Fold these 4 entries.
Entry 1:
Amino acid sequence: MKKIHSLSSHLLVLLITLTAIATPTTITTATTIGVTYSTPASISATAQLSPDRIAAKVVSMNIPAVRLLDSNPAMIRAFAYTNVSLFLSVPNPLVPLLASNRSLAMRWVYRHVLPFHPRTKISIISVGNDVISYSPDVSPFLLRAMQNVHQSLVDLRIYKISVSTTFSFFNIVPTAFPPSSAQFQQPNGEVIIRPILQFLERTNSSFLINLYPYNMYRSSFSIPIGFALFEEFPFNFRDDLTTGVRYRNLFDMMVDAVISAMAVMGHENLPVIVAETGWPSSGIDASEVDATLLYSEMFLKALLTHLRSGSGTPLRKEGVSEVYIFELVEKDAKQGIRNWGLLHHNMTSKYSFEFSDGGKARSFIELFIGCFVGVVLLYLLM
């Protein structure tokens, strides 16, 4: 009897230990990783890419978030009840109109948000995309348009959808290294960006940035390819002598440059969303020797691993809150354009790795432990 009691005690201890192992503990929150998508009109006409087909593919790939570069109502509807979070976009030409006429902002919300919310999970609206480079004439209207869209949501008692705008790294951060010395380019920094940062802080929104290590690598001969591709080589690092921080990849260095620039303006704690990033699998012409399928796969695979590790960046341990890979489906395969897509025109994968984390190894372990725990419990109850 004592042996049975002793065995039961040991099994109980083992049960508690295995339960502790099986229970996930989160120390840092990994970044949400999504993709960008533009409507079928910009994709090969030979592929029948209906909104329902796109939504089904995104769900099958376990992609949690999608940035719609042109917010097609049919596409927004297709994501209803999928639990995929949508990042909507207001086209640049509409920015002055939404700024000057509040009723037009309400009309945009009525057409793109109200019919679908909350069945479709809409998380954020970007009013314009890289407006500063799109047209200097549009930039002064940016904040007013954002305010009108935000107020339209509030008037409709929709409080969980934030409003922001998307900037391009190269058009607002002239110097990325050292990151601690980065500042927003003037006069846009004071005239355009500072008031927007204040708005984002006040409305609990995020700073959105298009950030391409590929473009930074191409613009500087001093950056080795391994540093841009997250490779773990002995000399693949750059030291910020001001802070003593060592950077081991270009992505983190660029993110921290944005954070430093925001800190100069007193907004270092604003959440940052990387609205676009990626590495092209083909270039505009033969001079783009590093725009290859091999390098594209290396970059994407390493980026996903880095983001899922939850290690963040040297200046922001929690990292960026979301990252969107440009893009889900590639454009026409023809000369003169870069291809970035994760999928071919026929919706088959271009890469050998799975975009989704999947958690297959962990799932097997948890299943095994779950079965064992069940057997132990059954024994103890007998």
Entry 2:
Amino acid sequence: MTNQQISPPPRDFLCPITREIMQNPVLLIEDGRSYELYALQRWLRDHNSSPMTNKPLRDRRFVHNYNLKSAIEEYNAQLETLSLANRFLSFNIRSGRIPSEWNNKPTLKIRLSLLGGSNVGKTTLARYLQYGVQSSFVHLNTSATVGPDLVFFYLDQLFENKYVMIIQLSDIPGMERYESCCDNHFRNCHGALLLSDSTEIDSLERTELYWYKQLQIKGKEYVEAILVCNKIDLFEANCDAKYRRIFFQRAEHFASTHNMPIYHISALRGDNIQSMFKQLILRILQNNALLQHIKETNLVHEQTLNNKDSVRRTSSIQLSAQPSASSIQNDDDDDRTSSGDCCKFA
């Protein structure tokens, strides 16, 4: 899904009088040319000649050109589709509540997982996405993650001009003893960010030999992944040229072997973070099998919610239709009182 150039319209789609794309083309019988209806009518009020050749007209009749109109409508539809696709590509990742005008629109949820060992910067990365450049001023607990932390975002552009895109980001614990609580996030994620510490080459090996392997075993067969080399700021400041060369070679070999993009980022400074996430999201949306799965999962979820609402409304109606115990008691009291009064009156 790349930004597509919109080609100029064919010359036959342009009215020779207005020089604009026609909406209601008509064919002037004598000169065999098509014009916009209102423009030709206005021309013929003031002229008795062809707008194209300027030769006198013996026959001023014209007919609707339905074939040309159909072709123009098809071109305009393609133009609108390309325009919407290009506009979506300008999306940004936002946190907080979605705009209120989108509340009734269908949603698609993309599940992403941050995978990597301890101290590679997964939580710092999630925090930067959530708070942006202000994340360094937000005081949060920086101890090791002991359970999957969930952070939610949304895209500020509609997908296919109708879907609200919700991003669920799971920060998976990097310690092996918490592995059992993470299996569900391997199975359900649509995209994975495989993090390594650029200053620790062993973390790159563990990312490939453990985290990527676990993703292949437990995850979906069509899951998308990106290799993320974090702490590029420390890498540039503290690592010598020999270490840099070796690290780059191993990282590129890992990424090329498994056909995945590679990003060098700084979760602390924010280097390349937005472009990295946009790349992963676009890869997921370009993956037809994965996108179809996301849509089907969303449809099942919506149907389940609708069924629950229907059951809840039915139960509420039944409860409201049943008389309360106090009203039954009051009716009995009224009957006894009424009977007593009747006997006393007699």
Entry 3:
Amino acid sequence: MKTIRNPPPRLRNIDVYDSEWSLRNFANPQGRFGTSNLSVSLEFLSSRSPELFFSLSARPNFVIRPNPSSSSLMATHLQVSENAPSEELQPSSSRAIGEHDLLIVGPGVLGRLVAEKWREEYPGCQIYGQTVTTDHHEELIKMGINPSLKWTEATQKFPHVIFCAPPTRSSDYPGDLRLAALRWNGEGSFLFTSSSAPYACDDNGPCDEDSPVVPIGRSSRTDVLLKAENVVLEYDVIAMMLISLVNLDFLNKDGKGAHAYWLEKGIVESRPDHILNLIHYEDAATLSIAILKKKLRKRIFLGCDNHPLSRQEVMDLVNQSGKFSKKFEKFTGSDDPLGKRLNNSRTREEIGWEPKYTSFAFFLETL
């Protein structure tokens, strides 16, 4: 059995209807990570695979299993190198970085919700957003987020940093995390949102924060997450949050999520009994903030609603809700992988957090 080197807290991704999250505690010597340091990751279902909602899972599950080409629900990806041209990330010339100021790496759907709710907690704070392109800078500015393009030398450091960027648009994801860690001053919290994909469970069985993970070399998808987590663990004061994107269906007020995709398709070539773990984007954001405020170290947490459902159960609830004009017909697959049943009761107890959207069924009632 592998031993762990006191990893930082981390958050794993889950499917979001927003979907579920999985966070794993790295303090447990029998945890999922090996001998090197790990970081928190989240998975979002929507961007990696059509069968997933935007998921925030420490295993997109911030490994989502949506198509790599689908990015509408994912946070902006980071693609940088140490030799890349830079654009200074500068705070207001009249204000120094304060104790509650926040840097968001990858201010996409989740990052923007974190910014909104963080400002509610700390009025007057400064919030910065690191992006790959300038495509959404005007939107970020209107939201009160100071955007910056690419990386600079770590001359300006922040007390709180959250890394929400998915790996799909990065040529060196571990390197991106290393650069982000250099922007943290060590005083508050650094949270890496990842995915629950690395958990070694593919038979619809139970899985929690301390479940074992697959070895590096099993697949390119899990390798990039595990290597990124190891980088984060090099900084022994960082926390990780895992969200299950693969099994996470993230729903938001725009009706995005795996269920919406399947409803539009009508007939989907996937097996109906695959288990999904869900969490709402808003809940993923409030859990992230709750973890940041705790200033925890060397921990992994899991984000999910604790109500795992099969694909068929999800679409049965959609059809029965009366909220949609279309009706889903059927799943026709039989050979694709099964999922896992995530449970984050320990995360909830330790962080003192409960989701607003307690289940996918409850979410549908609010539409």
Entry 4:
Amino acid sequence: MLPWTALGLALSLQLALVGSRAELGLPMPAPMGDLMFLLDSSASVSHYEFSRVQEFVGQLVAPLPLGPGALRVSLVHVGSQPHREFHFGQHSSGPAVQDAVRAATQRMGDTNTGLALAYAKEQMFAESAGARQGVPKVLVWVTDGDSSDPVGPPMQALKELGVTIFIVSTGRSNLLELSAAASAPVEEHLHFVHVDDLHIIAQQLRTTILEAMQPQQLHASEVTSRTVRLAWPQLLTADSGYYVLELAGSSEPGSPRRQQLPGNATGWTWAGLEPDTNYDVALVPESNERFVRPQHLRVRTLPEETEEAGPERIVVSHAKPRSLRVSWAPALGPDVALGYYVQAGPLRGGAAQRLDVPAGHNSTVLQGLAPATAYLLTVTAVFRSGRERALSAKVCTPDGPRCRAPRPMTLPGAREP
């Protein structure tokens, strides 16, 4: 079981008197949006793993409602340079997309995911690539967890564009980096799964993608200590009216902040907020054609982050069929940390073992492992403040048909923002 306590993303939402489209006498629309798949097609992925990912993506999209007035799908490869396999609207049915995904050729090269994410924002979510204005946008990134370049800034740019980010990790993973990259809540948008077990999450992932494509009310799609991104369904058009968005904080008595937005808007980001504070939000549609009920939301910003740095690098060595040594850096002393705990759990399911390591030490030996088995290792630093920081990596014990004895590997880490 993954240590989600290291994520600690608590979000309290309270919805009040939300008018539905049915109450307004309007038909419920079919899901509509632009769905992009970003596949790791680099040399870090074996041909077998890439073929399993192709099969998974094909099965995922086959039942989706595709078409000009519904969903559109595109596919981009991650490699030394991003490569567009097909753009939005090029294929108008699920089976056609499934065939196109299966026919894709692995690109190989480096894993420049950050470059591919920037390409997605500038070149794919654009009208020239078939993307549409005013519709929900979703990106599904399937990765082995390792990137040769930074993914944080381009991923944040996509979120600011209103793109919902799903991540499926099948390999070595920096848990904190992927958690920061995925949309909130992280447990719904970030999946760790063995490449042979991708079919297990297909139905759940398909359902949450469709939910993201058809939001039914005002909601907070991204929350930090200083910002809140809001999204809502399209209730008006550019010609039928406009919105007034109001925000009032519990620590800001007096008049609320107001922002007027055009009728075709479906999102807005409030910045410059106070950490760990409740805010009441009101979305007021103004239209001369019909009455549209206002929508209300309460959201709480996250506490201010501190500069406590946990493990930044994991090294696995001396791997044997039933044991291995795991080391990490930096080694934190007892003046900063209470200690570490190391967890190792089989990716295909089963009990995880845990070892406690005193502060000031940065290495331990895991024993009692199973041969030819893929494990997810997680090293968590426990600070005196009560906070935790974690880093994860995938490793496979030797002597198995699907596993090779791992060479010592170094996984770069990332501090929490």
